[in-house]
Please model this.
Amino acid sequence: MTLIKQLTLKDTINVLATYDFKHCYGLEFETVINSDAKIYPCFMLWNKPEFLIGDLTKQSFDEIWRSDRRREVLNRIYYDYDIRKCGMNSCRQGHISEALSLIKHPPMHRNFL
Ligand code: SF4
Model:
Protein backbone atom coordinates (compact mmCIF):
# COMPACT_ATOMS: atom_id res chain seq x y z
CA MET A 1 0.00 0.00 0.00
CA THR A 2 1.31 3.43 -0.94
CA LEU A 3 1.00 5.96 1.86
CA ILE A 4 2.44 8.93 0.02
CA LYS A 5 0.61 10.04 -3.09
CA GLN A 6 2.74 11.20 -6.00
CA LEU A 7 1.89 14.74 -7.08
CA THR A 8 0.60 14.89 -10.64
CA LEU A 9 1.16 17.94 -12.80
CA LYS A 10 -2.48 18.93 -12.19
CA ASP A 11 -1.96 18.63 -8.42
CA THR A 12 1.13 20.81 -8.61
CA ILE A 13 -0.67 23.42 -10.71
CA ASN A 14 -3.53 23.45 -8.19
CA VAL A 15 -1.10 23.98 -5.31
CA LEU A 16 0.69 26.76 -7.15
CA ALA A 17 -2.57 28.40 -8.22
CA THR A 18 -3.73 28.67 -4.62
CA TYR A 19 -0.40 29.83 -3.26
CA ASP A 20 0.12 33.55 -2.92
CA PHE A 21 3.68 34.28 -4.06
CA LYS A 22 4.70 37.68 -2.83
CA HIS A 23 8.46 37.76 -3.17
CA CYS A 24 10.82 36.92 -5.98
CA TYR A 25 13.59 34.70 -4.64
CA GLY A 26 14.89 33.78 -8.09
CA LEU A 27 16.77 37.03 -8.58
CA GLU A 28 19.61 35.77 -6.40
CA PHE A 29 20.40 33.04 -8.95
CA GLU A 30 20.30 34.65 -12.39
CA THR A 31 20.48 38.02 -14.04
CA VAL A 32 20.18 39.60 -17.50
CA ILE A 33 23.09 41.16 -19.41
CA ASN A 34 21.97 43.44 -22.21
CA SER A 35 23.82 43.71 -25.54
CA ASP A 36 25.02 47.17 -24.46
CA ALA A 37 26.68 45.52 -21.39
CA LYS A 38 24.12 46.84 -18.93
CA ILE A 39 22.79 44.45 -16.29
CA TYR A 40 19.19 44.17 -15.18
CA PRO A 41 17.62 41.86 -12.60
CA CYS A 42 15.48 39.86 -15.04
CA PHE A 43 14.01 39.86 -18.53
CA MET A 44 10.69 41.42 -17.50
CA LEU A 45 12.49 44.37 -15.90
CA TRP A 46 15.02 44.63 -18.70
CA ASN A 47 15.88 48.06 -20.10
CA LYS A 48 14.04 49.94 -17.37
CA PRO A 49 16.42 52.56 -15.94
CA GLU A 50 14.94 52.31 -12.45
CA PHE A 51 16.01 48.64 -12.37
CA LEU A 52 19.48 49.09 -13.89
CA ILE A 53 21.98 47.24 -11.70
CA GLY A 54 25.25 48.11 -13.39
CA ASP A 55 27.28 48.57 -16.56
CA LEU A 56 30.03 46.12 -17.53
CA THR A 57 31.86 48.86 -19.45
CA LYS A 58 32.42 50.62 -16.12
CA GLN A 59 32.67 47.81 -13.51
CA SER A 60 33.47 44.11 -13.40
CA PHE A 61 30.64 41.62 -13.06
CA ASP A 62 31.87 40.74 -9.58
CA GLU A 63 31.79 44.40 -8.49
CA ILE A 64 28.27 44.80 -9.87
CA TRP A 65 27.03 41.53 -8.34
CA ARG A 66 28.30 42.58 -4.88
CA SER A 67 27.34 46.25 -5.23
CA ASP A 68 25.06 48.31 -3.01
CA ARG A 69 23.11 49.28 -6.16
CA ARG A 70 22.25 45.62 -6.93
CA ARG A 71 21.20 45.04 -3.31
CA GLU A 72 19.07 48.21 -3.37
CA VAL A 73 17.32 47.18 -6.63
CA LEU A 74 16.74 43.61 -5.43
CA ASN A 75 15.42 44.85 -2.07
CA ARG A 76 13.05 47.19 -3.89
CA ILE A 77 11.71 44.27 -5.94
CA TYR A 78 11.60 42.01 -2.91
CA TYR A 79 9.73 44.42 -0.62
CA ASP A 80 7.90 46.90 -2.86
CA TYR A 81 7.25 45.17 -6.18
CA ASP A 82 4.17 42.99 -6.61
CA ILE A 83 5.53 40.06 -8.62
CA ARG A 84 2.01 38.83 -9.32
CA LYS A 85 1.88 41.62 -11.91
CA CYS A 86 4.98 40.59 -13.75
CA GLY A 87 3.82 37.30 -15.27
CA MET A 88 6.28 35.16 -13.38
CA ASN A 89 5.00 32.02 -15.09
CA SER A 90 6.93 33.11 -18.14
CA CYS A 91 10.23 33.83 -16.46
CA ARG A 92 12.87 31.35 -15.38
CA GLN A 93 13.64 33.07 -12.10
CA GLY A 94 9.92 32.92 -11.34
CA HIS A 95 10.06 29.13 -11.46
CA ILE A 96 13.02 29.18 -9.06
CA SER A 97 10.97 31.50 -6.88
CA GLU A 98 7.99 29.14 -6.93
CA ALA A 99 10.12 26.17 -5.91
CA LEU A 100 11.84 28.08 -3.10
CA SER A 101 8.54 29.55 -1.89
CA LEU A 102 7.04 26.07 -1.62
CA ILE A 103 10.05 24.94 0.42
CA LYS A 104 9.83 27.99 2.67
CA HIS A 105 6.02 27.85 3.02
CA PRO A 106 5.00 24.24 2.37
CA PRO A 107 1.26 23.77 1.85
CA MET A 108 -0.49 21.66 4.47
CA HIS A 109 -0.80 17.96 3.62
CA ARG A 110 1.10 18.40 0.41
CA ASN A 111 1.37 14.63 -0.09
CA PHE A 112 -2.35 13.98 0.45
CA LEU A 113 -4.06 16.16 -2.12
S1 SF4 B 1 9.14 36.85 -10.89
FE1 SF4 B 1 9.04 38.92 -11.72
S2 SF4 B 1 10.62 40.06 -10.65
FE2 SF4 B 1 11.05 37.89 -10.39
S3 SF4 B 1 12.44 37.37 -12.03
FE3 SF4 B 1 10.39 36.93 -12.74
S4 SF4 B 1 9.73 38.74 -13.84
FE4 SF4 B 1 11.49 39.31 -12.57
In short: Strands lie at 32-33, 38-40, 54-55. The radius of gyration is 17 Å.
